[in-house]
Amino acid sequence: MNTLAAPNTFAGGGLDRHSETRRDASWVAAQWARPGARVLTMRGGDPAMDGGRLALAPVNLAPLPESEAPGPAPGGQNGMPLFLGFDATGPVFAVEARENGPGAFADLRSVAGALTPAEASMAATARALFGWHARHGFCPSCGASTSVTDAGWKRSCPSCGADHFPRTDPVVIMLALHGERCLLGRNASWPEGRYSALAGFLEPGESVEDACARELKEESGLTAMRVRYHSSQPWPLSPLGGQLMIGLFAEVGDDRAQADGTELSDVRWLTRKDASAALAGTHPEVTAPPAMAIAHQLIRAWLEE
């Protein structure tokens, strides 16, 4: 569990996922039938909401499609529930509703910051898992259609016997530091004035430190001298699927930063005063990333050091 005083959004939810026992179909079925079991309905990656909270319906009131009622072993495909874990109240499942189904759904990006850590974790887990299932219906080893097992946490190939598990892509996101200034970058596709920490995917064979140094050099021309870890954040909002943002501070050798013109259209050094104004929304030219983003928390942590 994230032990920071203020965990990043989607982190620190405290769900007990029962990763060992959820492999047992009879055990999962017993949790589905357990009094107090609840279901979170998702539609297109967005959660059902009720008065600003997740709409966790009792299992017997869950709005499942009529032709797709749960069987003895919930699985997580075609309307079937997948098992998210236990919160303080009991077992929680998730189901993906039809696109045109009824219900009040909210854009997860818009509401995530207002959810409790447990609710945000549930919604993030459900979105990431359903997105993974939607993209992995066929075995990458032999091309055969796969089936859902382990309560939605695995797909198995009946043809070649291969098992496939949900994928999480690691991303390094770093706040470059030089003296009393931090570096933010801007992508041309972002809203006017938006700047954020530099970031990029971890490549095969790289350590976190190596990836941080490479991304800094590629995007800004800077050389990382010392890298230290701050925190991490599950990030289910990318169109590419579930990611893990690895938040870092990177002390660099000089301040001769230059945007690469591909990933970034501009880079800018901010003093502590500038960064504080950007977080407060009072900087005349720079808009900081929103509070739910780990980039925001990196800037805030640097200011508080």
Concise synopsis of the structure shown:
The chain has 305 residues and is α+β, with helices and mostly antiparallel strands. 21% of the residues lie in helices and 27% in strands.
Q: What are the key terms here?
A:
single chain, 305 residues, alpha+beta, Nucleoside Triphosphate Pyrophosphohydrolase, 2 domains, six-stranded mixed β-sheet, five-stranded mixed β-sheet, 6 helices, 16 strands
Ordered list of secondary-structure elements with their pairings:
Blueprint: H1 25-32, E1 38-43, E2 46-47, E3 49-50, E4 53-54, E5 56-58, E6 82-86, E7 91-96, H2 108-111, H3 117-135, E8 147-149, E9 154-156, E10 163-164, E11 169-178, E12 181-186, E13 198-201, H4 208-220, E14 224-235, E15 243-252, E16 266-271, H5 272-280, H6 294-304
Parallel strand pairs: 1-7, 11-15
Antiparallel strand pairs: 1-2, 1-5, 3-4, 6-7, 8-9, 9-10, 11-12, 11-13, 12-16, 14-15
Helix pairs in contact: 5-6
Structural account:
With 305 residues, the chain is an alpha+beta fold. The protein folds into two domains: 21-136, Nucleoside Triphosphate Pyrophosphohydrolase (Alpha-Beta Complex); 169-304, Nucleoside Triphosphate Pyrophosphohydrolase (Alpha-Beta Complex), CATH 3.90.79. 21% of the residues lie in helices and 27% in strands. It contains six helices and 16 strands. It has helices at 25-32, 108-111, 117-135, 208-220, 272-280, 294-304, and strands spanning 38-43, 46-47, 49-50, 53-54, 56-58, 82-86, 91-96, 147-149, 154-156, 163-164, 169-178, 181-186, 198-201, 224-235, 243-252, 266-271. Strands 11, 12, 13, 14, 15 and 16 form a six-stranded mixed beta sheet that branches. Strands 1, 2, 5, 6 and 7 form a five-stranded mixed beta sheet that branches. A three-stranded antiparallel beta sheet has the order 8-9-10, with no helix packed on it. A hairpin with a 4-residue loop joins strand 6 and strand 7. Helix 5 (272-280) packs across helix 6. The model is unreliable at 63-78 (pLDDT under 50).
